[in-house]
Amino acid sequence: MWKQKKVKILSFSFIILLCITMLSFYMYIWISDPLKTDGWSNYNKEHKRIYLSLINNGFIKMEIEKVTVNSGKQPEQLNLVMSYTGQIVSAGIEENPQARIIGIDEGFIHPKLSENELRDLINNNTQQLPLHYGVLIINKENIESIRIKYKYFGISKTLNVNLEQGN
């Protein structure tokens, strides 16, 4: 009888510990903002064509759900840009044969590579995994702000970028 009670207590304790661990993990994911930008560029000092360089500081790949500009407006054109070279996503990258420009919903942003992984991929020239990511946004009006909605561990998150004040 004492053994049965001990097994029940241990089982109950394990379940409680598991629930606390899962809750802690999701709380961490909920408060973290892994998608960051490390800069943006444009053409001819106009803000109608913006290249926004993105970094995934998270643990898994993330999917961009929606991008809006200037308080919720849909841009005229929107693309995901992937660079397979050491070049970050910036104006002029579309001329690089080792850059790929695809629809925003056709790819993922993988986690940032370590310096060693980055160096190995550049030296081996394997072009298996993009080294840098970003978005190309084209709009009829000047772009003042960008809002990127993305999924991370199944949770919707948002990155807001004000181009007038920097990142």
Topology at a glance:
Blueprint: H1 2-31, E1 35-42, E2 49-56, E3 63-69, E4 77-83, E5 99-103, H2 115-124, E6 132-138, E7 145-152, E8 155-162
Antiparallel strand pairs: 1-2, 2-6, 3-7, 4-5, 4-6, 7-8
* Spatial arrangement of strands, main beta sheet: 1-2-6-4-5
User: What is the number of beta strands?
Assistant: 8
Proportion of β residues?
A: 25-35%
Alpha carbon gyration radius: 21 Å
Main beta sheet, described? 5 strands, antiparallel
**Termini, distance in Å?**
64 Å
The domain count comes to 2
Order of helices and strands: HEEEEEHEEE
Q: What is the C-level CATH assignment of the largest domain?
A: Mainly Beta
Given helix and strand content, the structural type is: alpha+beta
- What is the 3D shape? elongated
Average pLDDT, to the nearest integer? 87
> Per CATH, which architecture of the largest domain?
Sandwich
Keywords: Membrane, Transmembrane, Transmembrane helix
Transmembrane segments: 12-31
Describe the structure.
Keywords: Membrane, Transmembrane, Transmembrane helix. The protein is of the alpha+beta class and 167 residues long. The protein has 2 domains: 31 residues; 130 residues, Immunoglobulin-like (Sandwich), CATH 2.60.40. A 5-stranded antiparallel β-sheet has the order 1-2-6-4-5, with no helix packed on it. Strands 3-7-8 form a 3-stranded antiparallel β-sheet, with no helix packed on it. It is elongated, with a radius of gyration of 21 Å. The mean pLDDT is 87.
Précis, in short:
This protein is an alpha+beta fold. Helix content is 24%, strand content 35%.
Features:
five-stranded antiparallel β-sheet; transmembrane; 167 residues; transmembrane helix; three-stranded antiparallel β-sheet; membrane; Immunoglobulin-like; elongated; alpha+beta; 35% strand
